[in-house]
Known about the structure:
The protein has 11 helices and 8 strands. It has helices at 2-14, 31-44, 63-78, 91-104, 108-111, 130-140, 156-172, 176-199, 207-210, 215-229, 236-247, and strands spanning 19-24, 48-53, 85-86, 117-118, 121-122, 255-257, 260-265, 268-273. The strands form 3 sheets. It has a 3-stranded mixed beta sheet, with no helix packed on it. α4 (91-104) packs across α8 (176-199) and α8 (176-199) packs across α10 (215-229). The mean pLDDT is 91.
Amino acid sequence: xxxxxxxxxxxxxxxxxxxxxxxxxxxxxxxxxxxxxxxxxxxxxxxxxxxxxxxxxxxxxxxxxxxxxxxxxxxxxxxxxxxxxxxxxxxxxxxxxxxxxxxxxxxxxxxxxxxxxxxxxxxxxxxxxxxxxxxxxxxxxxxxxxxxxxxxxxxxxxxxxxxxxxxxxxxxxxxxxxxxxxxxxxxxxxxxxxxxxxxxxxxxxxxxxxxxxxxxxxxxxxxxxxxxxxxxxxxxxxxxxxxxxxxxxxxxxxxxxxxxxxxxxxxxxxxxxxxxxx
Length: 278
């Protein structure tokens, strides 16, 4: 609601069209009613609003990831190519994302958090604390809805929000969320640069040539190659096992990653669907 109110002001000043898409994830008994209520509140701000219901299909990364994927797909489908999609993530959301990346051990890219912009998506509130958005709603007389899922300890993000961050603030001092956000910004600069170097690799997967690359580049080349070959839901351990075919070759037959079997034939790495070699 804070994002909608701010966007309405900016759109009016710049003469831009503004509309809202409310996603009904269908994950709670009252989801449809909440979506309708949100539409009415948006329309009270003179913002055109529509509801899009999505089907959240469980995936290996859990319910939160599945809901996010369904939501982003629906928003992308609802927007025309020349429209910008505004998301309401705040500084607190960024801090939580960085901590999630840290505990998962997913590398510098996960520590870089969420970008301010990517493609059509823009996060204009990413440097604003969640408390500020709540206070804005109070001062503007806007009502909002608190998702009860945000209080369920079965979700890792909720535990980080309600338990971990308050302890860090208490034991280390205030400013933790801002510090984590700065870490994300710095990590993103490094990750973007290293990814650009890896993306420039246009040769075959020659182990002799790959071994000459710095670790930070070679591991990214492997990651990108696995993605192009159709690997799914793979992580750092899978990348390291493929890297061992390059840097610790002692006649291994093959390495399995989700969806693929990787072999080293002479000094060339090849990938085939898992079922093709069974």
